[in-house]
Structure prediction request, 227 residues.
Amino acid sequence: MLTFTRESQGRCDRIAVGIDTLVVAGWTGRDAAAIEHHIEELFAIGVPRPSSVPLFYRIAATQIMQGAQLQVLGPDTSGEVEPVLVSLADGLWVGLGSDHTDRKAETMGVALSKQLCGKVLCDRLWRYADVAPHWDQLMLRSWGCFDGQRLLYQEGAVAAIRPPADLLRRYLGGDGALPAATVMFCGTLGAKGGVRPASRFEMELEDPVLGRKLSCGYDIEALPLIA
Prediction:
């Protein structure tokens, strides 16, 4: 069960829900050059090029977590800030998450690498209808802690990522609603300075129109690799 504080038109409630389906959308940039940049930065660390774009990876729903610490196997993982769609019984909501990924395993297969790490999800949601009219003005940011120094890792408008309606149409194969109890990670931005591991990952989604932010962070504990 996941627990969220939900905000809509100045009102808040608290809800606990079970999630049945987790989808991670990859290669979702609107700009072909930006997609190529992200593909190239991953290719530089040995990740094969995708067969097509975008792609929708089904990941075990049990990989979704909420909390301040993420345990991973080995030192070769990193986070990615993403807007997240959460479909509930009363409609579509927007959240914030990190598609934490094992970069070493990614060289063997992207789907495998995404399955190996937990997906961290913020515990606050906004109703999608409240932000849909100004979706492209939302801003994504992330920071990483590298050798004890907090550095800006990602920053940009969600306008760089395909809009939710486009992703849902492609995923569902036509018009329709995302089934309830489904979470979809919507894609990320390029990393400043290249993809690399951090000891802590922080992220935010800013709504400059309504003057609010979703934010959370987590420490990464790398468990030892024992042969």
